[in-house]
């Protein structure tokens, strides 16, 4: 604390004021630098977590051309509540796409639970019903859910779509509250199904019998586009939804695109539609059966 003796010359008083102001400014700048350093560290940790959870997918998996990306709606986080994975197993290529309630770092624990369980179950379980039940049990076993039903995370739920692409291209899927993927065949873009999905995982117990659906074969040159509702529900400044189906059809009009090119076309249009920042996490996964 700076004390000025009564009757001190004016110059002394002004110097003391300048010293006090300079001290406060220095403390403020030091605190600001500290906060910025901690923010950079937090973002670095978030980026490292993202690279572990949503690790980069290989460009080709067992005869499938693959590309995926996600965009978090949380400006302070490099991760969101969307998840995806593609694995080659002895049962065929298995894919998962999910969307955790909420976004940003708060959803990270549920994303880790679902992805960790899928990466084991996809290899262990002979059918998709077994894979889905493993994901459901993993969510129910989370410590804060099991030990504290009143914990906010106990109310978390996640939409999940699991897909299996057999060696001959036959498609099987189970859907818990997630948007159905689009199939791109030449210039035709259609959802693989319009059936009502099961409820999201975490809301209700799974039924005793799980209806694994078959959707024919993914032929050479055809693509499957999985997405979260943050893509289809994205709005522009006038409140109009993002026309995903029309964008896919337009991108495919010149001819079949590689998975990475199709993914780039979707995100370019999505960012333009939303003014470069969607209101919700958005993820897209494209798999194309190689000719």
CATH-derived topology of the largest domain:
Phosphatase 2c, domain 1
Q: What would the average pLDDT be, to the nearest integer?
A: 82
What CATH architecture of the largest domain would you give?
4-Layer Sandwich
Estimate percent helicity.
25-40%
Main sheet overview: 6 strands, antiparallel
Brief overview:
With 291 residues, this protein is of the alpha+beta class. The chain is 37% helix and 23% strand. It has helices at 10-53, 108-124, 128-140, 143-147, 229-232, 244-252, 259-274, and strands at 60-61, 64-71, 82-89, 92-100, 158-165, 170-176, 182-185, 188-191, 213-217, 223-227, 282-289.
Please provide a written account of the structure.
With 291 residues, this protein is an alpha+beta fold. It has two domains: 9-53; 56-289, 4-Layer Sandwich (Phosphatase 2c, domain 1). The protein has seven helices and eleven strands. The chain has helices at residues 10-53, 108-124, 128-140, 143-147, 229-232, 244-252, 259-274, and strands spanning 60-61, 64-71, 82-89, 92-100, 158-165, 170-176, 182-185, 188-191, 213-217, 223-227, 282-289. The strands form two sheets. It has a six-stranded antiparallel β-sheet with strand order 1-2-11-10-7-8. Strands 3-4-5-6-9 form a five-stranded antiparallel β-sheet, covered by helices on one side. The longest helix has 44 residues, at 10-53. It is globular, with a radius of gyration of 25 Å. The N and C termini lie far apart (78 Å).
